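Allow me, if you will, to draw on your knowledge of protein folds for a short while. The matter concerns a single protein, recorded as an amino acid sequence and a row of backbone structure tokens. Kindly check, if you would, that the fold set down in the tokens agrees with what the sequence suggests. You will find the record immediately after this paragraph.
***
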Amino acid sequence: MTFATQLWDANQPLAQACLDNAFVQGIGNGSLPRAKFAYYVGQDAFFLDSFARAYSVCAAKAPDSEAFGIFHGLAGGVLEELKLHGGYAQDWGVELDNISPGITTRRYVDFLVATAWSQDIGVTAAAMAPCMRLYAYLGQQLAKDGVPDHSYSDWITTYSEGFFEDLARQLEALLEQYGQANHTVRQAAQGAYAYAMQCELDFFQAAWEVGE
């Protein structure tokens, strides 16, 4: 069993809680109020900008050209994801240039950026892997009986497709290679992974609570 699989399995209750969250279920069945999704789009765009920057920091710290290229490519994948959010923003009247991050978003972003700058790249990969693996999992679960036809179909399609799964696997390969450099790095990676997964659940819950 790979290190990434061990971490995913250890945090499966949090992943299941994300899938069961009312926000995610609302995306799945199309019942999510538009205002909640619009809030999420803005917050996630702010988050993804920092996510891409964290990848870039890892690329700069990479010990070899292969890791540099992979981290750089993953940053490009995030920029493609941001294009999806840009389309949502245009359709739903969200001004991404004027987004103020909520407390939950800021806490998650600050954690990622601080980890990227201060920790070994293996620990940063562990902090970023939950987002990639979780979204692939959510997309695949919501699409297991076919992608439904409603307002959030594009979201489900994006995260259930093989392209996003490939990105998740690339990051997990880096986690496997660099997240076990020594006992200290491995322990830090375990803690970073668990904290990031909790941040993901909190992120969905914060989006759901808007307007409640």
